[in-house]
Amino acid sequence: MPKPAPFQARFQLDIQGHLGPVHQLAVSPDGKHLLSADAQELRVWDLATRQPLHRWFAPWMGMEPGHLLRFALSPDGRWVVVLTLNRWRDTLGAAAPARSELQVYELATGNLQAASTWPGFVQDLAFSADGRQLLLACDPGAGEATQLQLLGLRALLQARFRPWPVPLARLQGLGGEGLRLALRSVPGGGWLLAAQARRSPGALVWLAWDRRAGLQVQRQVHTPVGLQVRTLACSARHAVVAGYGSPRRDGRLGQLLSYRHDGQALPRTLTESLPAALAFDAMGTGLLVGLQVDGARPPVDGVAVFGADLPPARPGSAAYFNGPPMPEEEGLGLQSVQVNAYAVAGDALTLCSSYFGHDDSVRALAWAGAGLALSSGGDNQALHAWSTECRFPVRRWALRGSGRNCFAPGIDADEQLRFGVLPPRLLPPQHPQRQQCFDLRSRSLSTTRASDVDPDDYASEKWLVAGELSPVIQLGHLDDAMAALDALAEKAVDAATFPADLSLYVGADDEWLLWSRSGFYDASPRGAQRAGYCIDRGREQEALFVPADRFKAFYRPDLIAAIVRHGSEERARRAGVAIPQLALAQMLPPLLELSRGGVAVEGGRVTLRFSVQQLGAGAPLERVWVVANERFAWELKRSDAAWPRRRGRQREQQFEVRLPLRPGRNVFKLCAETADAKAVPLICRVDGPALASAPAAAPDLPAPGRLHLLCVGVSQMAVAGTPQAQGFKNLRYAHRDAIAVFKALARRRGQAAGPLHNPAFSAVQGELLTDVAATRAAVLAALERLCAPLRASAQAGAPRDVLMVFLAGHGARFAGEQDLYFFTHDVEPASMDRSGLSLLELGRLVTSVAAEVVLVIDTCHAALAGDDVIASLSPEELGQRLHALNERGLTLLSAARGDEIARENPLTRQGLFTGALLDTLADTRFYAPGPPGQRALTLLGLMHGIETLVPLASAQAGTKPQTPVCRSYGDLLPLTLYRR
């Protein structure tokens, strides 16, 4: 058996939208799904919720992704056939033959069903009206004539991943190399082809096929001017295509050429500029016309501009999708570009609506029902929905990601990267600019003062900047980039071997992401959500997108800082920085899939059967677990006796789990991990038994479980006052804070040695550690004692236990370290990796138990001493990373934002945050009604009280502002912490 080829993987942004211009839109026949494609990916959206469902990526082309040229949706809406170009030029100066591929996906599941390769360039494709055949325009290259091939859809599906199936029919003699073709299905049957050759007007060709006569030309019409063939649109009665040139001498107007299917030409319709896309509605009574930016060239001797001696456009380029090269970049952002909607009555086109909502050529159009148009062009690749029922409509809604184009990026000698984010059309004439400014050295974002762009802003002698009109700014070391350009000039190397040394993405929400060639990255708190990796699993499986938080090795701010300092990964390595050479394809996360009949419900319990496939040849599967309704419910480790020892042919292991169902909707999250990466969770939703009528207790106060409470306060450090403290000083009240919170939440019953009690819980187990007793080993041991009984009772449906950890003391993050550390009594700041208590290490323990986890942090969140200490992790980032450890719920209450210091109040002899927490416990304003005669303080009430009282306390104490941060990750279910 041949050894399977290794998977390929590459860094991939996830901006919840398109990164490049959208060149094709389509709506499924049932109106439920929208398909949108750019040159590298096709997205499927749920139109009801406007949420993404599937992402299909273009295959790789050497070191670059290939080009997604076109797609065709079957008339029944079941199949999507995607046409990609997988190879164009391997090296400059040595042209390799093109290789195109058809990929057939099932729309409902997103699964790849078949793929076949054509050893040439396929320009376009179209389904037959009944969906049984697929017509393709194939260009073999090497000067051979272009030919049409008719494939049977059933034969294509049955071929699976074998070579190109035998065509049902062929038609040749359409012209030589360089002929541009576009194919469309005629709703009544047959196909229409638009053709444009060099130095000649265009042509429209009507085609038909039957089993006896084969594929034949029914009629052919030569157009008076050259055609923009990609704009071809068909209804059951008409064919319309954009033509170059116009009766105006300057040629700035565009025109629509209209024909009946009997070949009869209809009056031409002038447009404000050259059309870039056309689309009929399902009934053929409405026509959308998207225009290009105003830059059309005049015709040459009455023939289209394509008649000039221009080389054929490279497939995948803007020129390929939009006709011959146009100076669109000069107009992008300088004007509003419109979409016209025409009513089709008889053979006449009547303008009824013009939508001005785009700032680039409108290349993609579709109808989402009667009177609702969809269009895309500029506007940071957003998809707009608007009504054609009024003459100048406004946008109803838009599908847009967080990306936005950057204008005029540049970098100065201080490594301040400046770029504009507003299109010039939105600024008044001669308006001074404000730019975004990203400081590479500190990785911080700011806004410049209002001024003109100064040449000194682009005076860096270290960096070369690219990325104009793109959401991603690319930086390369200047010396290396110039050497690469010299090599390219000699046509000695492939341009794709010189990717950017650093790439910067700044979203519309001001969250940023900075990554290197190898995929190491630094990010703002929510910017890390945009990082991911596209995994190409070969031609027989669809590519996967894996978020970056599935891996354990790529969030490396220290390595990004070293690359900024030295200019590239290789230069940093030569300077002694240990940047690992990571083989991403060898450390891929496992893949979870439900088995056949994978969800079975019987007798109030559910059985989940699923497989876990190990991708690549990296570390083996270590652990599999299930989270039921945001509670840790089941786990199996590699060291357990029940671990399956046999693996399937595709390195799959089978698992079966039986769990109880609670009434109503149940959500099960299936998880798995290796030593290097974690799988994307597989979510299963199962309906449980019907809810009983009229519960005896209040529905928001479920049966009380146990409280497991750990309070740690460290005011005194053993190394305080010595050089090993690195400037950190003792605190005054952190130990008092821990004692006060412990006494407030876990009172003693009766005598001093009596059991702990909290009226909201059936039992309380507590640990209190302060100062000398709060060593790193003691804290971990106490936490283990609290977690052990929780692990033993890991059963779904049990009373809701709560694990609450309170920390008061110093907290900081150090250069070269990814973690936020809490300072225990025996900490040595010079060796935090062995003496400090990492909060992520703490998180691995607290999020691995069957309990609701509440983590309360009253620590200093700012740089306090020396150049080795930098600002800590923000509360948002910390919470996201803790939540990602075990894919379950977590509530994080933090004393201050990442750029603020958690203060102590000498008046109350407590931390401001802890004082507000205790005041909330005593203030009935924040309590909710409970059982008769009682009031309950829920977790939401505690968060509300803390967020209300901390700013008041900081103002009363006369300190600098302190803003608490309260975040919940996972489902926030009603949870009572105290009753009065």
UniProtKB/TrEMBL annotation:
SMART domains: WD40 (SM00320). The keyword Cytoplasm does not apply. Pfam families: Peptidase_C14, WD40. One of its GO terms (molecular function) is cysteine-type endopeptidase activity. The lineage of its organism: Bacteria, Pseudomonadati, Pseudomonadota, Betaproteobacteria, Burkholderiales. PROSITE patterns: WD_REPEATS_2. Residues 730-923 form the Peptidase C14 caspase domain. WD repeats lie at residues 355-389. Keywords: WD repeat. InterPro entries: Pept_C14_caspase, Quino_amine_DH_bsu, WD40/YVTN_repeat-like_dom_sf, WD40_rpt. The keyword Hydrolase does not apply. It comes from Inhella proteolytica. GO terms for biological process: proteolysis. This is Caspase family protein.
